[in-house]
Amino acid sequence: PAGTVRGVLDLDLPGPTISRHLYGHFAEHLGRCIYGGFFVGEDSPLPNEGGIRLDVVEALKALSIPNLRWPGGCFADEYHWRDGVGPREQRPTMVNSHWGDVVEDNSFGTHEFMALCELLGAEPYVSANVGSGTVKETSEWVEYLTRADDSPMARLRRENGRDEPWPVRFWGLGNEPWGCGGGMRAEFYADLARQFGTYSRNHGENRLYRIAAGAADADYHWTETLMKGLGHQLGGGAGRGWHGSGTYQAVSFHYYTVPGPWEHKGSATSFDTEEYYRTLHEAQRLRGILAGHAAVMDAYDPERHVGLVLDEWGTWFDVEPGTNPGFLFQQNTLRDALVAGVHFDAFHDHAERLVMANIAQTVNVLQAMVLTDGDAMVLTPTYHVFAMNQGHHDAQRLPLALRGVGSRGEGETQVELVSASASRKDDGVLVSLTNLDADGPVTVALDLRGAAVGDPVGQVLAAPDLRAHNTPESPDAVRPAPLEGLRLEDGTLTVELPAHSFATVRLTLQ
Ligand code: AHR
């Protein structure tokens, strides 16, 4: 058992801002993420607005999701936006060759996506097609979305029912160009990115935050090639401000938590303790990989003008038995919640460089927030971690050091048993704690320094079984409950964490 872990939390040393965009999302035309998940069509008996499912919107609004990436993923590099605007009955169909080889009817396109973002109160993050699209097509999409005057694309947008341009900031150029996005070498992509980035114009007051498509996992060569190859085109402006002067403001990378080999990743719900620890080991590897990309970027951009964006992360297991292998539908257990907790702590620790992260994917695909089944909708354990961590959005990171954290296992199952982070916004402090021990509780005793605080209030996400998950029949098998084991005495905050649990504690500065 992990026993007792001691630590120090400095309440009066606020560090960098934890961007709310670290809590970003991702929706691809993949399986039932868009169709059946977000979008059911206007004729659906389910409550909807313009075909967008309102129960899903309400659930996600409660998370204050800051941004939504679309239309892919791999799909982005075969998507031609002109096919998805205009009267729906006249839109051409296409084959979604990456995901299930199904026919896509383009009924969810640019206007529907922007309407979804407006309903969610989320900023759009659009991924343009570099793999099989043209520079002209990308250039015209920006014009269509963001131009106000009587330009050809603005006129076309008006003909399609939208007068005002939309504000669009986040603009991705391609996706996984080393793989499904074109099978390119980093050097080749860097040149293409310069070209596509150049013609992704700022129209009027709109300022794009252009994100070059990045590495897989620990491919630091890719990041270095972008930092060198995009050269003077990279630049985020003042500090790591969002409106930079260069052609590119950020580079991305992807990191998935996969416990087994690609051909047999492992079940989402049926796993033993060894497999659990292997999963959490993979999740904890992210911290080192973030440090690796950040170190490469520091060498070329010591003042941190360029942002790092992790625009796909999450667990990737075998699909649920009997479902389409190309739809990537998986259940979501308490294990997924702990993976999320570990990721957020690593994100907070890298807030100086990491400006955005997007979980893959928001609805019905991979590590989802929400699973739908016909008219039923369940919130996953991962959803609750996003909800409980909301206080970190745009808060300032606080230094939190733990000592005496136990670890278990060796090699591929080696895991640090406790993970934590803290932030401060106005007079509120939020501490997040994850106990990864599969078998035992842990006590965390934090010396609070630098300020006095009022009585702590806590929530805990736990369940008797690590494999616990929510279903339409049992929607609350895993849900937050008040955290009982919490005391503040002589400036020490003591938190009793049950086995395999995630908890948050709120403190108010006095
Ligand atoms: O999220 C599923 C897929 O994973 C994305 O389409 C792709 O970018 C990645 O390989």
Describe the structure.
By secondary structure, the protein is of the alpha/beta class. It has 2 domains: 3-10 and 398-508, Golgi alpha-mannosidase II (Immunoglobulin-like, Sandwich); 20-393, Alpha-Beta Barrel (TIM Barrel). It contains 9 helices and 28 strands. It has helices at 54-61, 110-120, 135-146, 152-159, 186-198, 220-229, 273-300, 334-349, 381-388, and strands at 3-10, 17-18, 24-26, 48-49, 52-53, 67-70, 94-96, 102-104, 123-128, 170-173, 209-216, 250-257, 307-315, 354-360, 370-373, 376-379, 395-398, 400-403, 407-408, 415-416, 418-425, 428-435, 442-449, 457-461, 481-482, 486-489, 492-497, 501-508. The strands form 7 sheets. It has an 8-stranded parallel barrel with strand order 3-6-9-10-11-12-13-14, surrounded by 5 helices. The longest helix is centred in the middle third of the chain and has 28 residues, at 273-300. The two termini are 35 Å apart. The structure holds alpha-L-arabinofuranose. Alpha-L-arabinofuranose is lined by residues 28, 72-74, 175-176, 312, 360-361, 366.
CATH architectural label of the largest domain? Alpha-Beta Barrel
Number of helices: 9
Total domain units: 2
Tell me which ligands are bound: alpha-L-arabinofuranose
End-to-end Cα distance, whole Å, is 35 Å
Sheet/helix structural class: alpha/beta
Helix share, percent: 10-25%
Quantity of strands, as a count: 28
* Strand order of the biggest β-sheet: 3-6-9-10-11-12-13-14
Oligomer category: single chain
Shape: globular
The mean pLDDT is: 95
Q: What would the CATH topology of the largest domain be?
A: TIM Barrel
pLDDT below 50 for ≥5 consecutive residues: which ranges? Answer: 237-243
Strand content: 25-35%
CATH class wording of the largest domain: Alpha Beta
Query: By CATH's scheme, which homologous superfamily of the largest domain applies?
Result: Glycosidases
Radius of gyration: 22 Å
Largest sheet entry: 8 strands, parallel, barrel
Family: Belongs to the glycosyl hydrolase 51 family.
Organism: Microlunatus capsulatus
Protein name: non-reducing end alpha-L-arabinofuranosidase
Enzyme class: hydrolase
